TrEMBL record:
GTP binds at residues 137-140, 188-196. SUPFAM superfamilies: Nucleic acid-binding proteins (SSF50249), P-loop containing nucleoside triphosphate hydrolases (SSF52540). Binds 1 zinc ion per subunit. GO terms for biological process: ribosomal small subunit biogenesis. It comes from the Bacteria. This is Small ribosomal subunit biogenesis GTPase RsgA. It comes from Petrachloros mirabilis ULC683. Monomer. Associates with 30S ribosomal subunit, binds 16S rRNA. Transmembrane segments: none annotated. Residues 97-244 form the EngC GTPase domain. One of several proteins that assist in the late maturation steps of the functional core of the 30S ribosomal subunit. Helps release RbfA from mature subunits. May play a role in the assembly of ribosomal proteins into the subunit. Circularly permuted GTPase that catalyzes slow GTP hydrolysis, GTPase activity is stimulated by the 30S ribosomal subunit. The keyword Iron does not apply. Its EC number is 3.6.1.-.
Amino acid sequence: MSTRANRPGFIEPIQGTVLAVQANFYRVRLQLADSVDGVGLPPRELLCTRRSRLKKMGQQVMVGDQVRIEEPDWQGGRGAIAEVLPRGLVLQRPPVANAQQVLLLFALVDPPLDLQQLTRFLVTVEATGLQVRLCFNKCDLVDQTEQQDWCDRVHQWGYPAHLISLYQQRGLEGIQTSLKHRVTVLAGPSGVGKSSLIHHLLPHAELRVGEISHRWRRGQHTTRHVELFELPQGGLIADTPGFNQPALTCEPSALAHCFPEIRQRLQQGQCQFKDCLHRDEPHCMVRGSWERYPYYLTLLEEAMTLEAERNATANPEVNLKTKPTRGGSTHPEPKLMAKRYRRSARKTEHQTLQHLYQEAEEQWSSPER
């Protein structure tokens, strides 16, 4: 790049943070001194590509990555990512590296608060190991008694809740304080106000704000890709595409640790079996009438089904099918292999051999021989 000249005070390579990924381009916020050559201010961001060496290595560049940039073109605002620095915690959905906490935003109404959906989000966040901050928006649409009931309810689950109203601009100071100097992932269903919250935190950010679908009573997707925004008070926040059913990635044996109620009960004693799944095992410390226990059982069944499907995919030779017997009971039986690998039936093989023998006999008994 022609404008890279060796200026006094120029240090290469330069470190930065990936703010957005679109196609094969990466928007990187630079970590620079006040000037590069002691005269002018460099740009705060560069639009970068990835070195072919990284492509050949299969090195993915994610939002939130700390990277080193070579050969910056200051006038053109371009650069090339030469190295991805070691990552901390990595999220796959949404794809964000080096996050420190998750701000989980739900609305008390419009769309209505679904406890099973909320539990699914909480379990998904707990499985990442990140700190959870639960926030309820649109508190202006319910009375004080209902607000307090919701806070008390989730507090029994093990989560302190923060009430805000983006419409009335209430309760937002505490949110800003919790985001200061931290990398935060903002998550939650569509239509609860995620983009509106970022618009409040960053008035000059260009964001689309959607409306609630009157037919389905759910939010409409407005965020299309993950992007990090720099907060005025320090810190970064990632606006993520809204989704109503996050994928369950937790193993059945680890699911219990994603429920604070279960963790609290296990601190008081241990179950009889070390591999207890807290369903119908005897002397279980977890089973009881606590509110989210039915949701735990539902997610456990889903996690076991997903695990069985993964094992079946990894070991197709152990696939089983259920075959009924004459007595009305059933028993497992191995599935047949795929047709292209399946052995021919013995009757078919026998007929083929007979046909070959017959052709051979006719050939040897012909007058020409």
